[in-house]
Amino acid sequence: MEMQSVxxxxxxxxxxxxxxxxxxxxxxxxxxxxxFQRPAAQRPAAQRPAEHLAGKERGRTKRKxxxxxxxxxxxxxxxxxxPVAAAAAVMALLSLVMVAAGSFEQRANLRGFVLPxxxxxxxxxxxxxxxxxxxxxxxxxxxxxxxxLSLSSYTVKKNETIxxxxxxxxxxxxxxxxxxGIKDVRRIGAGSTLKIPNIDGVMQTIRKGDSLSAIAxxxxxxxLDIIDANxxxxxTIVPGQSLFIPGARxxxxxxxxxxxxxxxxxxxxxISSYFGYRANPFTGIRQFHNxxxxxxxxxxxxxxxxxGRVAETGYSTLFGNFVIIAHPDNYQTLYAHLNAIxxxxxxxxxxxxxxxxxxxxGYSTGPHLHFxxxxxxxxxxxxxxxxxx
Length: 389
What we know:
alpha+beta; Membrane-bound Lytic Murein Transglycosylase D, Chain A; two-stranded antiparallel ribbon
């Protein structure tokens, strides 16, 4: 219900200057600053006529009775929970009603008095009886993830990629790779069966000396999350045991290896000599060639094939200016016959960073790069690891 319909047409015209109502002094200042004599009933007892003194007790009893009625009315209409502001407002309104009805002998001057606006009164009354508003639930928050790992099976369809499968089931690519132990995604074809986890994370094989607290700290996850995800009854783990680490990620090396992008071409060019036995270009004697010779223009920028650390730089009669970079999992790469070296020994290097400039230094028949890949010091065919020409 609107307060306008409750108050109806009761309006009080606004005035510019409120008039102070003085009760104690004998003389009350008129709005035009003209003194006038206070009525006999309001004078001190010593100055009142005898006829007024006789009705003193009768008037006091009458006012006391009237005020008791007001208090009773206020107690009925003001619940105990109504705010103090609302109570004060109602008391003020009732006082004005009594003044207007002539309960007091001196009529109050309401010039300048203004009732609160309808909307303010409505707000005061409604706030006193309305229950507090409850904050709406935040619907933007995602639902809580399940804590225990569960796996479902899926059969790969024709021309379907593992990336598309991961997006279809709402899991990360590295999660799908780790849970299924995929070493090369290019070997996953139609008809292959994949395990689909219900939460993201990676699998880890327990080694001798591992503990749950150490694994949690190294992976940056909660110990309780690991226990819940694997539904463990205790913190006891044994070597060879596989644990799912929720929220963990594969390393860049592991992911690139699985995607067939572990090794990139250091330069693009024609291969003049492959890995394996060949006739020596100077002597004609059959010898083993432990890398690829890639032809290119002189001073072409040569890039690191893998992430790693520069293990050695220098010059040799056979390879001329060379750079050797050490990589995770005991891999090393060799870049030889350089015109200039652009890295320093001990520096960290990312895949694709400049290593040096192509040249023809050392034992060389012309500008080319000798690129070699080694595993624990043993040469392997770079073509087996490259992701394409």
